[in-house]
Amino acid sequence: MRVYLDHAATTPVDEEVLKAMQEFFSKKFGNASSLHSWGREAREALEESREKVAKLINADANEIVFTGSGTESDNLAIKGIAYKHRKGHVITSKIEHPAVLETCKYLEKKGFDVTYLPVDKYGLVDPKQVEEAIRDDTILISIMHANNEIGTIEPIEEIGKIAKKHGIPFHTDAVQSVGKIEVDVKKLNVDLLSMSSHKIYGPKGVGALFIKHGIKIEPILHGGGHEYGLRSSTENIAGIVGFAKACELAKKRLHEDAEKMKKLRDKIIKETLKIEESYLTGHPEKRLPNNASFYFKGIEGESLVLMLDAKGIATSTGSACSSKKLQASHVLLAIGIKPEDAHGSLRVTLGRENSEEEIDYFLEVLPQVVEELRKISPLWHKK
Predict the structure, then answer these.
(1) In the chain, what are the domains?
(2) Of the given ranges (18-22, 45-49, 245-249, 378-382), which has the lowest mean pLDDT?
(3) 321 has catalytic annotation
(4) CB-based burial of residue 310 (10 Å sphere; 0-12 exposed, 13-18 middle, 19+ buried)?
(5) For residues 349 and 261, is the Cβ–Cβ distance under 8 A?
(6) pLDDT bucket at 379, cuts 50 / 70 / 90
(7) Sheet of strand 89-93: strand arrangement
(8) Fewest CB atoms within 10 Å of the CB: 25, 41, 98, 156?
(9) Coil, helix or strand for 380?
(10) Nearest to 318 by CA among 302, 334, 338
């Protein structure tokens, strides 16, 4: 049996998505900037897609800017605000995705000040600490909606109210939450929100940035002035159409998918915690419906992932975007886990196609693999 349990890394393209995209590769292949009928056809598809993506997050269509990825959306939001101000102070958290953290580190090299807020043992940012960190020269607050490793959902609505009260633009990286839980930009009080197609059964190479009316940013790509002058590049119409279809399906299936995944997630958590010296990471309740993340004492995460893979099960340790780096996860260290324990982490992320039978197989294999690894581990000292 082959079981894919790494949906936070990427998802398979839904068949309906693939079907929607196909004609835009060969029949409706026009450039959306062209004046002729091929171009107009592409432009129509682009604007229809914008509507569908906007609907998923309760935004207006003209508040959506298409990008090439979630990473690009984060860069455009953060650098876009920073370049507009040319100097100032940014507030973020220690557990952000590298697309945010590395962008902030880059800005520090350019003379900007950045405050990296701590989190509690569950990975939650304290809104009071956000407010306390605000300075006269604060130009942006960027806090993720849900963590990609431990699945903790942040108090974005509350932080958004604080940002609004102080008149500071607020960005959230919602790459992991969109399509899994309700995301409403108006309720969340956000000014900028990043999304990614391939996390919600759409194609890779497409993302979007929600930019609230009235928020001014500088582009980071210059050229023909596409996407309201904010993202020059001929639009990837096939990819955008696929992303829009994925958003449409996510909106329709949100509650059904979430309920199914939550049930399987809870089963995984309950059974996995029966393994000796195994621990749940992230918040026990305020977490994504598809995320179960753990650490096991006395074993090494990479070995665990590879041994599960040998049994036909795909999982991950740390974040897939950086899991080739042999260093303890910055997220796990930030929630207070010791480096040697952080190396024994496992992230299991469900998708809409996973079945109870697949989960039973995973739960049968996992304790055996943990036991095998502990037998050969110099770190495992049975009490």
Answers:
(1) 3-10+254-375 (3.90.1150.10), 15-249 (3.40.640.10)
(2) 378-382
(3) yes
(4) exposed
(5) no
(6) confident
(7) 64-67, 207-211, 192-196, 170-173, 138-142, 89-93, 113-117
(8) 25
(9) coil
(10) 302
